[in-house]
Design goal:
The complex is a heterotrimer of chains A (258), B (295) and C (283). Helices cover 73% and strands 0% of the residues of chain A. Chain A has helices at residues 2-31, 41-76, 80-93, 98-117, 125-149, 154-168, 171-182, 190-200, 206-218, 226-238. Chain A has 258 residues and is mostly helical. Chain A is flat, with a radius of gyration of 26 Å. Chain B is 80% helix and 0% strand. The two termini of chain B are 30 Å apart. Chain C is of the alpha/beta class and 283 residues long. The termini of chain C are far apart. At the A-B interface, helix 1, helix 2 and helix 4 of A face helix 3, helix 6, helix 8, helix 9 and helix 10 of B.
Chain lengths: 258, 295, 283
């Protein structure tokens, strides 16, 4: 009995000592974006009691995968509302997985939006257009939240750039996001090129775009891809660049055939 | 033969107890969990065939690491819980403790045996998982290279880089090390519980509760520290949970590692130190109880 | 003579949950086992024999009193350097061979290398299990298990060996082998403390006995003294004629003695059993 109390008090005293340590490591986890998950009532309602307990017991990633698979099935059945709901759960459970944000945005902006535009049940074009726009916005929202959770990864900036380029046709924003992606250490080399392409479509920013494309052109043979040459030539025309400064026309023999 | 000189601690004695414990545990066919793990890997790969490679790798890694996590935890609890009650029931504990063996040495031997078992199972499961991942990665790399023959070189390069990045990454290893550490913590705690538990089942049930509460400890601690103006009963309860239970959530780094978050060496070191602290604490407590226990 | 084991007024009570009164298992027991003696602790089941042995081995702590082995208090691990123990029906791991099991116990005692190897050989020889050394314990008979258990108790070459019900559940032949082993150990100068509820067996091997009943030592002393009936003498004759017996009876009566009992000598059931089974196996 006395022994039991003694052991209990040892546990309590070491408990007092360990609490600040655990709190510090926990804070570090937050800083490093581990466990950036709020286990609130909302999540419990979403994933159900069992899933919530599982998620709490160290199987968060597994629960996320399970919900993701459900979302995949919902997509195959084109149940768009369900896809949205499930992807919200997936990204809440696993906010550090780029893949889930990317997939969520893609389903909204590319798949659901097209389905909404071609909805046979909705005869009014204005309403279909509005629905389509709403899906674009949902996709954008996923990507923006994904970027907030993963500011150091280029993939989601790229995805947002593509969304602005292909869906909103907003080249200025697209250029901005490609540029942000390109600035990150892990970014692929084409991000810089994409940013410059997008800029070349922005009225009033031709000079800036021209300078960037020209710098890329100068940096070597690797960058001299057909689209870059085409955009550069277009800008040379636009900006009335003196003939001497223009890049040479590619000879048909030099042009890679693709 | 003259009377043997008696030392307070002998590595040979502990070593004998450790290898005997390991041998006893392997006799229990605990390695069937490896078979289970292999079946899970094979089963999931059928299912994953319908996904893109990023999805496939993500889910494969989550499932494998989740399985390693749960299997080592369950093994730690179930294997440790039976050690003492079984030896008492078989009366072999009397033959051992009637020899010039300190009870601390006996406990250390038992714990070391379980930890060795956990290390071996973790290593084998990880090896199996990494082998599957390696094979799949190379298949996907070859496929990607074939499909993208016509693409610009930096696109192909980027695509291949993407495949590599989404398959194996070096951060998985510290993540797995921390899974092992969590299992070691659970084993030491189970050993402690089993020194006063009346039966094997009782120890397992207690540990299942500890497992869940341990994952909620972080939340309880934060509420307790924030002084939410909850009543004193609730506050005392939260305080007790925060003080008495380890924060098991801190040992779940692997979910985020799969998602691509690197584990900083400093964070890894701190987590490892915390795990080591708990293993030591629970071992010492187990010893303290067992030291006076009547057999 | 030095005392191998000293038990000085020990009591042991176990608390019973939710009851004020604890269960008293052993009540103020004292006895001494001299070096080289075979001491039998007798008593019905639940009389406190095992608890007393466990106290001597430091497995259970006495509530009051002390126990010592060669002058060392059982509370200290060092007291166990000179003692070996065979508990009642232990369940050794079935997957080990006899040799492996002895090697494990040897290592637990800090032995190793060639010293341990020779020790194992000697012990297997002693308990006559050399032929079964590479067989798994799962295939051992109850008697063999007790013998290997005895070898285990002797692995660190102790001066005292404590045996708790060494023949429980063993058939008569096996039982006899164990008895012979105990006598063998005694001949080698070893001290033996054993507990049993089989009186006949104790009678055959023990120099001194103590009888426990409900935790109390009710009788204690040298076996011969305890069972001798001082004013009676037994006379066993062979080939005596009826006349001779009549004459002896008459003389005895004339001298004022009484003939209390007169009957033909019997063999014991055990001897009969052993003779019958041995001749059957010889055939």
């Amino acid at each position: 009995m006395i022994r039991g109390l003694l052991i209990l008090s040892i546990l309590l005293v070491t408990g007092l000592a360990k609490i600040p340590v655990e709190a510090a490591i926990s804070a570090e986890h937050r800083r490093e974006h581990f466990r950036a998950v709020e286990f609130g009532l909302g999540l419990r309602e979403q994933v159900g009691q069992l899933g919530f307990i599982a998620a709490l017991s160290g199987f968060r990633a597994l629960v996320a995968d399970f919900v993701f698979i459900q979302a995949h099935v919902a997509w195959e059945r084109t149940e768009w509302g369900r896809v949205l709901l499930l992807f919200r759960q997936v990204t809440t459970l696993q906010p550090r997985a780029i893949l889930f944000w990317d997939m969520a945005a893609w389903h909204m902006a590319w798949n659901a939006s097209v389905a909404a535009m071609n909805d046979p049940a909705q005869p009014r074009l204005a309403l279909r257009l509005r629905a389509q726009r709403e899906y674009f916005d949902l996709g954008r929202d996923f990507l923006e939240r994904g970027i907030r959770n993963n500011p150091e990864k280029p993939q989601l900036y790229e995805a947002l750039g593509r969304l602005y380029r292909d869906k909103y046709h907003d080249h200025a924003h697209a250029a901005e996001y490609f540029e942000q992606a390109a600035a990150l250490p892990d970014a692929p080399s084409y991000d810089r090129r994409f940013a410059a392409y997008e800029l070349s479509y922005c009225a009033g920013r031709e000079q800036e775009a021209y300078e960037r494309l020209h710098r890329l052109y100068q940096s070597g043979e690797r960058e001299r891809l057909p689209t870059l040459l085409k955009r550069l030539k277009f800008l040379e025309e636009q900006l009335h660049v003196p003939l001497a400064e223009r890049i040479p026309d590619q000879l048909p023999a030099d042009t890679p055939k693709r | 033969m003259s009377e043997l000189p008696h030392t307070a601690f002998s590595l040979r004695r502990v070593g004998a107890l450790t290898s005997n414990t390991l041998r006893e545990l392997t006799r229990l066919r605990v390695f069937y969990v490896l078979l289970l793990f292999a079946l899970l890997l094979i089963g999931s790969s059928f299912f994953l065939a319908r996904m893109t490679f990023q999805q496939e790798f993500q889910v494969l890694k989550d499932i494998s690491l989740g399985a390693i996590n749960i299997l080592t935890s369950v093994l730690a609890i179930v294997a440790t819980a039976r050690l003492l009650p079984q030896e008492i029931e078989d009366r072999t504990i009397y033959t051992i403790l009637a020899k010039p063996v300190h009870r601390g040495e006996y406990m250390l031997g038992k714990l070391a045996g379980v930890l060795l078992l956990l290390a071996i199972t973790t290593l084998l499961m990880s090896a199996l998982f990494l082998a599957v991942l390696y094979v799949r990665e190379h298949t996907v790399l070859a496929e990607t290279a074939r499909q993208m023959r016509a693409a610009p070189p930096d696109h192909l390069e980027e695509a291949l880089r993407n495949v590599r990045a989404s398959a194996f990454n070096l951060n998985l290893l510290p993540g797995i090390a921390i899974i092992f550490l969590k299992a070691a913590l659970l084993a030491a705690l189970t050993l402690f519980v089993s020194t006063f538990a009346t039966s094997n089942i009782f120890a397992v049930v207690v540990m299942v509760f500890v497992y869940f509460i341990g994952h909620l400890e972080g939340t309880a601690r934060e509420y307790w520290q924030q002084e939410h103006g909850t009543g004193w009963i609730a506050s005392t309860f939260l305080g007790l949970v925060a003080l008495l239970f380890p924060d098991l959530q801190l040992f779940n780094l692997v979910d985020d590692v799969v998602a691509g978050t690197p584990i900083l060496p400093a964070l890894f070191a701190k987590t490892a130190a915390l795990g080591g602290f708990y293993v030591t604490l629970y071992f010492l407590l187990a010893w303290a109880v067992f030291y006076r226990r009547e057999l | 003579m030095t005392d191998a084991i000293t038990v000085t007024s020990v009591s042991k009570s176990f608390p019973i949950p939710f009851q004020r009164r604890p269960m008293v298992a052993v009540r103020d027991v004292s006895f001494r086992v001299e070096a080289g003696q075979v001491y039998g602790l007798l008593g019905p089941n639940g009389s406190g024999k095992s608890t007393t042995l466990k106290m001597i081995l430091g497995l259970v702590r006495p509530t009051r009193g002390t126990t010592e082995i060669f002058g060392r208090d059982s509370e200290f691990v060092a007291s166990r350097t000179s003692v070996g123990f065979l508990p009642e029906s232990p369940y050794f791991p079935k997957y080990l061979t006899g040799e492996e099991m002895l090697r494990f116990y040897g290592k637990v005692c800090g032995l190793g290398g060639s010293e341990l190897r020779t020790r194992i050989d000697t012990l297997l020889e002693l308990v006559r299990l050399t032929n079964a050394r590479t067989r798994r314990l799962g295939g051992y008979s109850k008697g063999m298990l007790q013998r290997i258990g005895l070898a285990q108790a002797l692995i660190n070459d102790p001066k005292v060996v404590i045996l708790d019900e060494p023949t429980a559940g063993v058939d008569p032949a096996g039982s006899r082998e164990i008895r012979d082993l105990i006598l063998d150990l005694k001949a080698r100068g070893m001290t033996v403390l054993l507990s049993s509820h089989l009186l006949e067996q104790v009678q055959e091997v023990c120099d001194r006995v103590g009888i426990l009943a409900q935790g109390e030592l009710v009788r204690e002393g040298p076996l011969r003294e305890l069972i001798a009936i001082e004013n009676r003498t037994q006379l066993v004759l062979e080939n005596a004629s009826v006349e001779l017996i009549g004459e002896i009876e008459t003389r005895a009566l004339a001298a004022g003695a009484q003939v209390v009992e007169k009957r033909n000598s019997e063999t014991t059931l055990e001897k009969l059993f052993l003779e019958a089974t041995q001749s059957a196996t010889r055939r």
